[in-house]
Amino acid sequence: MLRYLTAGESHGRALTTIVEGLPAGFSIDIDAVNRDLSRRQSGYGRGGRMKIEKDAVQVLSGIRHGKSLGSPVALLVENRDWVNWTEVMSPTPIGEYSDPRSAQKLRTRPRPGHADLVGALKYDHADLRNVLERASARETTMRVAAGALAKQVLLPFGIRVAGHVRSIGSVSAPEQELTIDQLIARAEASEVRCADPEASSRMIAEIDSAKRDGDSLGGVVEVVATGLPPGLGSHVHYDRKLDGALGAALLSIQAAKGVEIGDAFANAARRGSQAHDAIGWSAERGYYRTSNRAGGLEGGMTNGMDLVVRVAFKPIATLYKPLPSVEIDTHAEAAAEIERSDACAIPAAAVIAECVVAFELARFTLGKFGGDSAQECLRNWRGYMAQVAGR
User: Fold this and answer.
1) For residue 136, which of 164, 114, 159 has the smallest C-alpha distance?
2) Three-class SS of residue 357?
3) Mind listing the pLDDT tens digit for each residue in 154-181?
């Protein structure tokens, strides 16, 4: 079973992931992983941290001569900023300081909307830094690395995944009929990863306005996957439904607050005759849907249409004009703490969501066609596709 774990703190020495369950023999391009890491760091509205870090993976295990070995893949990304935090984030006791608050960069004023306060209460921490370092979206670096591996696993199956921005703040991009190649080209040409140039310009202006006000912006990103065979997932148990897995994975991304598959929210206001996708059949295409309001998923399974999933992200919780809060040690009223942050991270969120979706699709693809080698998996896939074509 394909799975991964991440470890590391925002200002710690490094971030790591271990990807387990990757069969042997898949071609792995480390440069492609690094390109996705670079995409995550780009985008209009990012803060000063992205000028410091130049993320690139070191492969510690599981890949040899460009091929997966079938053993766990361990990847590491160093934090360049660690040199400025070696004492603050040291794993050993710091000793006595004349000003411990300064030496530890102690944080005692929680940010509304962040994990700071609840995490401190749950784990009985007196210093919010013990929470915020791990709760930081810096952790998504390794989710992108794992997802970049997953995208390479999907390629031999003919599956491609692309993320783009649908809205930032009050600015939304119009619906467009684009091929996945057109979508990727237009999104990557935009500073905000939006496929519509006019909407991109208005999004940039919206970000500039929020930044001037010391505020932040959220938005909605969309992930599209093409080439999916019918039948990934299952209807028989909750934990085998692909839509459930996608929802759980996407909602676990920092600041994600809502997930929509297909026209979910619009369909809630429609009659059934206008919400579902009629079924057709032809000798060339086999079974197909005449529309895709379901977003490629029916009954917890892919139906052969493109997967379309959207994720709503709230504005970043760190504000340069902070909201009221309290000191957790004295309960005195005080403005919330300020950590270095972005005005808007939605362009990066599109890359993160893309990679998170890719990993879940790879997990379910290998679960369906799995074996110990790429050749065995692809043989199983070809046999299944022939079976489906014969129906």
Assistant:
1) 114
2) helix
3) 999 999 999 999 999 999 999 999 999 9
Exposure on the CB side of residue 336, measured as CA atoms within 13 A: 19
347 close to 43: Cβ distance less than 8 angstroms: yes
Task: Give the type of residue at 335.
Answer: A
Angle 55-59-64 from CA coordinates, rounded to 5°: 140
**Angle, in degrees to the nearest 10, between helices 346-369 and 140-154:** 50
What pLDDT, on a 0 to 100 scale, did the predictor assign at position 54? 87
Q: Which amino acid, 18?
A: I
Question: What residues does 160 pair with on adjacent strands?
Answer: 226
Q: Is 60 helix (H, G, I), strand (E, B) or coil?
A: strand
CATH C-level class of 3-93+100-389: alpha beta
Per domain, the residue ranges of the chain are 3-93+100-389
CB atoms near residue 295 (< 10 Å): 24
Extract the tokens encoding 162.
């692309």
- Other Cβ atoms less than 10 A from the Cβ of 12: the count is 22
Angle at CA of residue 18, ends 12 and 19, nearest 5°: 145
- Residue 341's nearest CA partner among 328, 322, 325 is 322
Give the residue among 241, 244, 168, 160 at the shortest CA–CA distance from 203.
168
Continuous segment of H or E residues that includes residue 244 = helix 242-251
Looking at residue 355, its amino acid is: C
User: What pTM does this model have?
Assistant: 0.95
Within a 10 A sphere around the Cβ of 107, how many other Cβ atoms? 22
